[in-house]
Amino acid sequence: MAEAKQWDVKQLDRIVEKMIDTVQHSKDEIFRIGEQSRQEHDHLLRELEEVKQLTVQAIEEADQLEMKARQARRRLSEVSQNFSTHSEQDIREAYEAAHELHMKLTMVREREKQLRLRRDELERRLASLAQIIERADYLVGQITVVLHYLNSDFRQVGELIEGAKQKQEFGLKIIEAQEEERRRLSREIHDGPAQLLAHVLLRSDLVEKVIKERGTEAAIAEIRDFRKMVRSALSEVRRIIYDLRPMALDDLGLVPTLKKYLQTTEEYNKGVHISFVHIGEEIRLPSRMEAAVFRLVQESVQNALKHAEARHIDVKMEVTCHHLLVSVKDDGKGFDPLVKKENAFGLIGMRERVELLGGTLDIRSKIGSGTTVFIRVPLDRSTDKTNKEERKR
After folding, report:
1. Which one of 57, 203, 272, 352 has the fewest CB atoms closer than 10 angstroms to its CB?
2. What rounded mean pLDDT belongs to the chain?
């Protein structure tokens, strides 16, 4: 019986190894498709920028030719109406000039039309590639969860069969949480520094063209914009690093950490004023609550800066007998809360954090009138003593 059991264990291990190899191969293939799509996306993005420039040039050239063609037609009309005072040579030259300009204008209009069609086609292909890239990233993340599960819980499955259900649920929750956090960071890096750096690369390619076509002053203006984009990318990278976990939150608590974060954010964003008011007793809250409230304020402030383009942000936190109340108000461009936006991961994440704390989230906004985020989280005062003892240990 022992030999049969040992053989069964080895056979199961070999099956698991084959499963892992197959899943890993599938992951590599999906990753390769995603990378190829990214490369094609970047290539088409550069081509789209060039096509847009050529379209603008074609429109300007057509406008100039249209003006000249109208002048040539007026000249031809004048010559034709005053046939007795103009020679046949004058009439022929006027006709040929009008005809030549008309032909040039027709060719330029046709080129403009083709450029517009190419631009629209490129935009459609870019949208399709973006969907492929997003789907590939999602599948790679899901397969990574499976691989982690196979590598951790399914190896030596014969010896670990007892209690497998509990380990499976616990392991999957941890892995899914890790993968979700990685996806969040990946989205932030893709939407922030990666996009900025891609634009920096495109703008750097344009500097040389600008010097040749429009001169030194225009090139200097491009370089200034180039420098602003690099500074913005650096700021995004620093923000993401800080987002990973502010150490002061564990050492000092929520209020001092928020003060420091808002002060630092104000320094990085020139021309933006951020105020912070704390009302009530400054107490230590459960660690998970402090982390969640910090993330909620952080997400609200970043939304105000990045999407609302706010210049003034007021953060207010009040501790009452039974609740923690937080409001984040900005003077940005606002939005319509009734209109659902695709890929609104930030607001979805905020609502999930508040729900985990048993609280409520209310967002009031109007286009052109700023946004106010209200957060209400219940407090359990009976846990204050326990929290203090846990922090001492």
Report:
1. 352
2. 77
